[in-house]
């Protein structure tokens, strides 16, 4: 209520005015050129999208509404109520991304209550998710579940009823909060169905992350804190990443937020994007199995041997490299700090740490990779594994629950600012040749 009625309502006219002025007064100002390399090469660094919620610097990493991860940890409300003591709550970062304001604990608690109140899943969604084959990938199940929730879209209904475009953001926000609210239960149903007894038990006296942990079947305050950290750091990574961009693209057709974010989840499910977190754990398990069978220890030497085998087989090292970052991902660093605080002697954490000590040099020697350092996915799995959450085929679903917060906060602003249908120009190879042969 507070988010919608007070904070955002005051911001929308100002931001609309500012963007309009930018367009009117400076619309023809050139901000970049596009090379053939960029055209063929996945549009790296091409500046062609406005993104309110976060910005990614190649050296420094992500800033959420101008705040680095350590700054978020220092100022955003925590579950204990003492800022700086523990990880920020997911609701804190949702508030920040949506409104650009650092919320109070009271505001965050009101948002928790609002999300819990919206979390009821339609019966047909429960029936559908419960009917899915256990061997269907959890991400596919999540996407099916979310798509089926589209029956609840107030945006689609308002559009069909002829709502004026100036009101689109008001209806979109209802859907956005609903999507964020329902995802944990869909995700928990999938986890409990695939790996356990199918029973999901809620505890809405807790925050979003704590309740999610109980629904997954975990009851450990330390795991709740990990989930808070996990959900916060995966929310947003500016607009060009595949899941956020897909959400923005699909949403630009005025598909509602349920359909738009399902598009984002489809992108997240690819191994070069969110699925890399499962691939990292698989890589580590394959490595351990191989050397245990050979009676060798897992150490810097055997990791180096295994890395070269992977590279020579023309496969990627999952969890390393990035399209934008050129340094160790600060999301990796804060997870490493969590491990040093909560599980310094954990066996797999030590494997991940040893990988970190050798992999950048291996990748530099390999010579192809623009960024030889680890990204977020390199660390997230081992933290989960430590708490007995070993079902790594499921890991990307957690990423998917979190990314909804960033991608959909931006979708709110897409509609509030009246951003148009996204439709860049493609060119044929013949046209490209004609440009250089002139
Ligand atoms: N291992 C081996 N080769 C790599 C790696 C890696 N980790 N990263 C990049 N390369 C290769 C890449 O495949 C490309 O080869 P080719 O010229 O034969 O096509 C070459 O190095 C240059 O690629 P880059 O410019 O460094 O990277 P790009 O921007 O194209 O791709 C990623 C970025 C993230 C897709 C790439 O680094 C990668 O595949 N990493 C492993 C998968 C991964 O961890 N993805 C998760 C990213 C984070 N997330 O959550 O989404
Ligand atoms: C992300 O969080 O989306 C990934 O790091 C990928 C990206 O930023 O391109």
From TrEMBL:
Instruction: Enumerate the transmembrane spans.
Output: none
Catalytic residues in the record: 273, 322, 377
What does the UniProt keyword field contain?
Transferase
Recall the GO molecular function terms of this protein's record: acyltransferase activity, acyl groups converted into alkyl on transfer
Q: Which GO terms describe its biological process?
A: carbohydrate metabolic process; citrate metabolic process; tricarboxylic acid cycle
Its name, as the record gives it, is: Citrate synthase
Extract the InterPro entries matched here: Citrate_synth-like_lrg_a-sub, Citrate_synth-like_sm_a-sub, Citrate_synthase, Citrate_synthase_AS, Citrate_synthase_euk, Citrate_synthase_sf
């Amino acid at each position: 209520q507070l988010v919608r009625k007070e904070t955002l309502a005051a911001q929308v006219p100002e931001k609309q005015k500012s963007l309009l002025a930018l367009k009117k007064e400076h619309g023809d100002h050139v901000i970049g050129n596009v090379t053939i390399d960029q055209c063929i090469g996945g549009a790296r660094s091409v500046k062609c999208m406005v993104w309110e919620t976060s910005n990614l610097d190649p050296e420094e990493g992500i800033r959420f509404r101008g705040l680095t991860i350590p700054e978020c940890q220092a100022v955003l409300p925590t579950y204990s109520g003492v800022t700086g003591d523990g990880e920020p709550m997911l609701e804190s970062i949702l508030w920040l991304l949506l409104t650009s304001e650092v919320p109070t604990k009271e505001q965050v608690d009101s948002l928790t209550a609002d999300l819990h109140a919206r979390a009821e899943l339609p019966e047909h969604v429960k029936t559908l998710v419960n009917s899915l084959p256990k061997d269907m990938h959890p991400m596919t199940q999540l996407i099916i579940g979310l798509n089926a929730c589209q029956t609840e879209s107030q945006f689609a209904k308002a559009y069909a009823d002829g709502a004026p475009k100036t009101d689109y953001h008001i209806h979109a926000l209802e859907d956005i909060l609903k999507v964020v609210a329902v995802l944990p239960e869909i995700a928990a149903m999938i986890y409990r169905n695939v790996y356990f007894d199918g029973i999901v038990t809620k505890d809405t006296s807790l925050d979003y992350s704590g309740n999610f942990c109980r629904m997954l079947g975990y009851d450990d305050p330390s795991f709740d804190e990990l989930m808070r950290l996990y959900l916060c750091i995966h929310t947003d990574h500016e607009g060009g990443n595949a899941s956020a961009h897909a959400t923005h693209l699909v949403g630009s057709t005025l598909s509602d937020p349920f359909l738009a974010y399902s598009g984002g989840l489809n992108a997240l499910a690819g191994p070069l994007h969110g699925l890399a977190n499962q691939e990292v754990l698989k890589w580590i398990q394959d490595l351990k199995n191989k050397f245990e069978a050979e009676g060798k220890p897992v150490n810097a030497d055997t990791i180096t041997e295994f890395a070269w085998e992977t590279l020579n087989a023309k496969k990627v090292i999952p969890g390393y490299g990035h399209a934008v970052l050129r340094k160790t991902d600060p999301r990796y660093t804060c997870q490493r700090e969590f491990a040093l605080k909560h599980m310094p002697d954990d066996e797999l954490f030590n494997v991940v740490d040893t990988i970190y000590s050798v992999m950048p040099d291996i990748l530099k020697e390999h010579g192809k990779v623009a960024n030889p350092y680890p990204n977020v996915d390199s660390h997230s799995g081992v933290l989960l594994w430590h708490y007995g959450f070993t079902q790594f085929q499921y890991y990307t679903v957690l990423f998917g629950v979190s990314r909804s917060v960033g991608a959909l906060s931006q979708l709110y602003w897409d509609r509030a600012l009246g951003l148009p249908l996204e439709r860049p120009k493609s060119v044929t190879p013949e046209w490209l040749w004609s440009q250089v042969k002139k």
